[in-house]
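Task 17 of the worksheet. Students: predict the tertiary structure of the chain below and write it out as C-alpha cells. Keep your answer in the requested format; marks are given for formatting as well as content.
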Amino acid sequence: MEIMDSGCIRVLLADEKRSARSEVRAILSTAPDIVIIAEATSPVHADRLAARLKPDVIVADCRSSSEDGIETVRRLASAAPGSGIVLVSARPEEEWLILALSAGATGCVTARAVARELCSAVRGVARDQIVLPRSAGDLLITHAHHRHSQFA
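Model answer:
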C-alpha cells in the first residue's frame, strides 16, 4: 500500500450512524499521521467514495450496518483494491472473522477496544499487516490447529 506524499495515512470512514463516525473521527484525529479524507453515510456511498478517492485505509463500522458486513467488505475491496479495510465489530466471532478476511478485510478492532487500538490498527494495515484483536487471533490459531489435526 502506498501512502501519499504527505506521509499521512489517508482514511475513509464508513458508517451509517453519525455518532459512530464521530467517535471514530475523534479517535483518529488525535494521530498526527492519520488524516480523514471523507466520511460515508451508507454502504453505497462508501463504495463510491472508495472507488473515487482510493484511500490508504477504510475504517468500516459493522456494528450498525443495514446490510451484511461481509458483503460490504467484498464491495469495498472491489471498489478500492489497494486500500486496507479495518472493521470495527461488537464481537468478532470466529466464522464471521474468517469470512471477513476472505472477503478482503485486513484488520479488525473490537468496539470495546476501539479507543485504545484503532490508530495502531490503521497504521498496521497501512503497512500491509493483518491486524486482529488478540482474542480473534487466538480463535483463528485454534481454528487452524483444529482443521490441521482433522487432516493429519
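Marker's comment: The chain has six helices and five strands. Helices lie at 18-28, 43-53, 69-79, 94-103, 114-126, 134-151.
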